[in-house]
Amino acid sequence: MPTAIAVTSADLALPPQDERTMPAVVLDGLDGRPLDHALTELHAVVERHGHVVVVCSAATPEPVVRRLYTLRSLLESDRIALFRPDLPPLGVAVLARQLRQLASCDLSPGVLASAGRLLAHYIHAGAVLGSVARLDRVPVGLKAHAKSWMPGTRFAVLAHPEPQLVKAVPGATLKGPEFPTWLLLAKGQLPGDWAAGLGAQWQAQGVRETPLPAESRTWWGTGRMIEFCGHLDDLSVLYQLVTSVRQSVCHWCGLDVIGDRCVFCSAVPPVHEPATPRALEPRTPA
């Protein structure tokens, strides 16, 4: 069976992008169920798929994250990877779906897991917000904080890959991707006209909509928002990106990986100190 891609809530499991997209394993309510029930469920997933990559956001409740580490420790398994990319929740959901697309290909578990760090660089994730007063994940100036208290003020924020913040007015824009993408919108309590206009600004191939993840309100600090994400969706392009990167073998667990860190064991390549030549000692004549 292909490597399983798991998420911590159902709203992070986006609909399949194509017929090859693998279904997500939803580990919902981990902190609210008895430990032995959650342990049995995760053990069954590992036994069925061999390896599991759990993708969650920085806004995932800490009790859920602690439960995940507890389960992995109790199972004493090096076949469970916990991946928390530096992306807003909608971007995390998109990245999880990209990994689900790639799970149907001939990629080893280590390469598939470490591909998440590579693909995250190609995701442009942000939101239109009714207030930035509680936004602490993107630099916000004092002037923007003051304006956020004025009724009707809206801000367009790009959190990844490069933080940007502008007032969401006609003519304003955010620097977008320099390659063809699709735009995904998740509407909260704001109209989506300005965000939908990004599709034309970024020359997107199309615009799709999805429900707003519950964790988005925590991540952005407000429910008055609409989240957006520009992303690659073609499986052949994703596969070419991943397979074009040089692979290496993790010196700790032996899995094939790309990049400088193994997602399963968190090992990085060892640093070898250059040998320092010893000073030659004078030889005493016999």
UniProtKB/TrEMBL annotation:
> From which domain of life does this come?
Bacteria
This chain's protein is named: Uncharacterized protein
